[in-house]
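Dear Dr. H.,

I hope your travels went smoothly. While you were away I took the liberty of generating a structure for the chain from your last submission, since the lab meeting agenda had it listed for discussion. I wanted you to have the full record in hand beforehand rather than looking at slides cold. The sequence, exactly as received, is reproduced here:
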Amino acid sequence: MLSIKNLTKTYKGREGSIHALANLNLQVEAGEIFGLLGPNGAGKTTTVKMIMGFMAPTAGEIIFQDTKLAMAEPRPQFGYLPESFKPNPNLTVEEYLRFHNQLARSSIDPEKLDVQLRLVGMDRFKQRRVSDLSKGMGQRLGLAQAFAGDPDFLILDEPTSGLDPIGRSEVIDLLLSINRQGKTIFFCSHILSEVERLCDRIGILVEGRLQFVGQVKDFLAKWEVDNLDAGFRREVKCVTS
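The corresponding predicted structure, in token form, is as follows:
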């Protein structure tokens, strides 16, 4: 469904070129949840920004359903939740979601809005102001706006960022439910225990370079990670050595 070929992003600094991403090659299959995993600064958000057309790659190409994507062109086929999701606090949940459906040029009848809100468990809060939402409810609203236009492919950058353990678990359950409805999900995280529960396959990024692609169980078996999150931070150093 999505093919990334030799994707590279290089910045020029005072001490020479800095490779934020180097020759990334990935494929995401229809119907799967693919997790891009790595420590902070590994290049995950850079990858997402280039997929979304917000940033031009230095080299490489991104192909979606056999069509090469160009920089800055609209991506109506994608639903997107950024890492820093900051909706307008003065709008109600319904107003905010209606606005995003208008951006997606999607019909905005009340029934459709209710369906989107029910999907994320927010239908009871559609008249609540965004400023009055908890962090977890805000993330649910972010997922709801990602469904505007009913895209089949969702790109979610750290969707559980800032949530407590209960909130993270709720969002993961929600994503699994969405995936069962036929949506393909490209999911970024730095928490291995999260993607172990959520993802069909993962890619491990370290310092802009892809170090592993495959199932989580294969990664755990290969590096014998005992304590998932602490172990990941330790073992990922071994991956690059």
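Two observations you may find useful: Residues 165-180 form the longest helix (16 residues). Confidence is low (pLDDT under 50) at residues 225-229, 237-241.

With kind regards,
E. W.
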